[in-house]
User: What shape does this take?
Amino acid sequence: MSDSKKFIVSHAPFWHSGSSVSERHLNLIAAALPAVLFGLTQYGGPALAVIAFSVSTAMIWEMLLNAAMKRPQTVTDGHAALIGLLFAMLLPASAPWWLVLTGTFVSVVVGKMIFGGIGANPFHPALLGYGILFVSWGDYFDFNEALRNYDLGFEMLYPLWSAKFFGPDAVAHFSSWDLLAGQQIGGIGATFGIGLIAGGLYLIARGFVRWEIPASFLAGVFVTAFIFHAAAPDRYAGPLFHLFTGYTLLGAFFLAPEDSSSPVNFIPMLIYGAGAGMLTMLIRNIGVYVDGVAFAIILMNIANPLIDKIRPKAIGKVA
Amino acid sequence: MRTKSFLSLSSPRLDYRNFAGLPGEPELLPPAESLTLHLPGRFRPAKAGLNIGDRVRRGQRLAIYEDQKEGVICPATGTVSAVGPFIGNLGRPYTAVTIAVEPDGEADDESAGAAGSLDLETADRFFSSLPGAPDFSVFFDPETPIRTLLVSGVDADLLVTTNQYAARRWPKEIKKGLSALSEVLSLERSVLALPGDIVQNYASVGATETVGVSPEYPSGNPRLVALAAMGEPVPAGASMAEAGIAFMTAEAVAAIGRVVGTGRPPTEKIVTVVNKDGGKRLVSAVIGTPIRHILDAAGIVVEEGDRIILGGPMTGTAVYSVDHPVTPATDALMIQAGKDIVKTSDYPCINCGECNRACPVNIQVNMLVRFLEAGKYEEAEDLYELDACIDCGLCSFVCVSRIPIFQYIRLAKYELSRIRSIEEEEHE
Assistant: This one.
């Protein structure tokens, strides 16, 4: 043949929308930054240490596991860094180094890598890490105890704890605005509601988070809390209080919509979100734990494959 | 090519209008020195009825084997300069016949005679290689009688304007072709599908119904055109013929109209040529013209590492040589610069669900692809509706992990059809 030029031959389609896995995770990390930065201004150096150590160890665990399993390195896709960041956001600023190290081990190795890496994890890896550590060393997650050396100019009691053990009157002085603006103690990246909502809306607008899950999750929390509050206003705090405290907003925008462990069909997404929101309130109001977001989402993660079977029939399929 | 907008609340929407534009007049290409025709059927040198040195004439029906059913009309007069095997997509065998063209060679009136006394047999024998490649074979199966003829004046793929051009500029020929076809065939309906924005102003083509097609990709896909025209979908797993629908492009019907009107079969194919920068033009090239000839005439320089695509960006076929000819079904020729090529990856599915929301027929692609990656094709069809797929390519287009989903789907369909034909043979 006279023409020796070699052309690229591949299968259609020849266009691509340009989306990529690393773009997705970097955007998720960027969207979490406002809440993280607010946490850093509140808790200072120790919070920075926890976040830096969590992100770096999460990435190192993934690199080590990939090397051990002789798989291609995937650490540059940003998923491990995202897991590390989200795990750190759940922790109190005073978390000791070994807790962070163990947590990222459980998150990345047990929560993700042994299931086959990205896309194969049945639970949100960071939540699995949090859940196992919370059950094992619950004292370190007691925010009242963990943050007792801080005085940030507002009541240094965990609002959900006060509401659970002393009733809604004990938290009546928290206005919704104060809670949204981060005038409460809690996880490093979980208290700044405005930042979390802004980040979440950014992700929804860019298409990185499916709006159905945050919306139905928040609706589930709101409605369930409203019912409890309406039934016994002297025992249960109101719905807005529950929306803006604990891990609710972090869970709604960053934890529940995790790709691998959440449904993708419309009705399943609504069931999943609403179910997680409802379970959150059941755990908070009648369970033994102060906050229920983590366990509620983990429980709905288990149900996800089953729920996601509810789907429309393909066009052309006859029943 | 990146087309995803910064904000994407809904699933990505590809609009034909953003890519199509109004078709201009096609440039007439100067004739090439040699033409190559792909005749269906495996190359069997011993049985070939056409050998190097044989003279062929324009309008003559080329039959290389005695048992060859498909009609291939010789597009030019000249001498056969090469005969050899060619393997097409999915291993489909062809015999490639190359003709050294004599300018101003005299024509043959064999096909003109066929046009004079048109019936289904002669149409199939002669006219299935007309520009637009009308498929007459679907009319012969007595078990699946064709009740509706669906003529598509829209293009299935983005960027392509070939059929839109034919529908806008040749309403008379289409009308003539339709009336000739309805004499030969026993049809209950014939429907002409047109872009939704011109259907109102369209010059009437007689009693034929018209239906407007939405401008959102992939509504120009034949099965979705059928859905728009019939009001109900072609059942999954069934061919359009099995649903009683024969599908032809507007260009093909116009070509039939010409044959009937003038007695001379048209041999020029309208091809939308898309340059590396996205610039488009229509050219009119004789069937069999090598791509190289079109590129030279259009002044397009291809470099190593570029991609040459027959068809549009979503469903076309990449070819490996500029010697590949224009076939009766080549609606577009697209050149993509190497730097614009987004490579697929072997990354696992992250379950983001973009494909599910993009799928026009509601297939749960995120689950389907897991079965396809594992080679579980029968399970993929039983559990996740592989057979409902209409081959639009949107799932691959939106895939965040850049999985070649469409390729997996095509492979699965091909393997399943192979398994079935083997099973049928064993059964018999």
Notes: The longest helix of chain A spans residues 45-68. Residues 158-184+193-307 of chain A form one domain. Chain A touches chain B at residues 1, 3, 5-21, 24, 77, 116-120, 204-207, 210-211, 259-260, 263-265, 311-318 (CB under 8 Å).
